[in-house]
Every structure is written in C-alpha cells, then in structure tokens.
Amino acid sequence: MKIPKAVTDLIDSFQKLPGIGPKSAQRLAFYLLHVPQTELDSFAESLTNLKKNTVLCSVCRNVTESDPCPVCLDTQRDISLVMVIEQPIDLLAFERSGKYRGLYHVLHGVINPLENIGPDEIFIGELFSRLKSHDGEIKEIILAMNPTMEGDATAMYISAKLKTQNSKLKISRLGMGIPTGADLEYADETTLNEAILGRREMQ
User: What mean pLDDT comes out for the span 103-125?
Assistant: First the structure.
C-alpha cells in the first residue's frame, strides 16, 4: 500500500525532530489525520509564528518576545552573578525553582567536535564580550552546563579562557545533586537549589 505523499512528507518532518524515530513519526502523522481541521490550522499557525514572534535577547541570548528580555530588565536581579547555561529551557528550570536571582547567559549548545560544533558555533564569544563591556560589575560566573562529557568540556574551555582574561573573576561549577549525564531541564527545584548552593570554584 502506498502512503499518500502528504502523510509521508509529515512523517519525514517529524523524523527530523530530536528523539522522534520512524515509528513515533508515523504514529504522530496518522494521529493528526483524526484531529479537526481547525485544530490543525491552529497548530500550523503556532509553528509558523514560532520564529516570527520571538527574538534572541541581545544581552543574554534568551528566547524572548522583546529585547532585552524580562530577566535582563529586572532591576531586582543581582547583576554581579551570571549563570552560563546550555539552552533557554534550562533558564526556565532555574526560574521555576525561584531560588536564583542573578542573570543568565545562554550558549544555545555545547562544544561537540563529533557534531562539528566548536566555540564559534555557540554564544561563547558573546559571553566574553559581555564581560568586557561590564568590567567590574560581574563578580562571579556560574558554569551550569549539563554534567555530560560535552558540558564538562565546554565548562573547562570557558573557565580556561576567562582565567586568562580576568584573574579576579570567580568561576564556579554547579555542586553535586545533578547526576552525571542528566539534563538540567528534568531536575526538580530542590535539586537545582542544592546544586546552586553547593557550587564549587573551578581550579
């Protein structure tokens, strides 16, 4: 039996998403055939507007509707503290905990030679530029990448670079509580809070 082209095109599109294999893509595509057209239209409009109605904050590179983002504009934040994270979804996790009141810098990835992702492919250079333009204001950088091989390599790279640029800057890494290989977005608020409080200075 030949599957209609409209269905195979949708299956192919779903397979391009992370974590979606061929069978999951097929299930999703055939499920959507039973969804009312009005809901499909709304779904399609949401996808279309995803990038049209969002921008990256020019300060921290968070995904936002306005530039600068609400976090960077919040005058109650501790501007001496900047947490470096991999993805915008990690920012949401820390904000849900309600315990961190500093600022953020979103890398949008990690250094991964196997995927041909180097320092220039993510927002590391922008972090260094930000520190230079706010010289003296930022006292501590918390490297909050996921505890994976790539996350650790990225943290070591940033730490080494920062130490050559600013010997007075405190550089710390999240403390224990985040299991090795885990993603921060799945951690609960208590675990994230313990990780922040237990952060250790990088040598």
Answer: 94
Tens digit of each residue's pLDDT (9 = 90 or more) over 176-199: 555 555 566 666 676 677 667 667
CB 59 within 8 A of CB 72: yes
Please indicate, yes or no, whether residues 48 and 60 belong to a single structural domain of this protein: no
194 and 102, same domain (yes or no): yes
Separation of first and last alpha carbons in the chain? 62
Domain count of the fold of the chain: 2
pLDDT at 118 over 70: yes
- Mean pLDDT over 17-41 rounds to 93
Parallel/antiparallel/unpaired status of strands 170-173 and 200-201: antiparallel
32: domain range?
Answer: 5-52
C-alpha to C-alpha distance for 203 and 112, rounded to whole angstroms? 23
Contact 89, 185 (CB under 8 A): yes
Residues 139 and 183 in one domain: yes
| CATH number of the domain that residue 78 is part of | 3.40.1360.10
Q: What is the mean pLDDT of residues 112-123?
A: 92
Other CB atoms within 10 Å distance of the CB of residue 10: 18
Per-residue three-class SS string for 9-75: HHHHHHHCCCCCCHHHHHHHHHHHCCCCHHHHHHHHHHHHHHHHCCEECCCCCCEECCCCCHHHHCC
The pLDDT of residue 125 is 94
Same domain membership, residue 194 and residue 138: yes
Residues 74 and 154 in one domain: yes
pLDDT at residue 16, rounded to an integer: 94
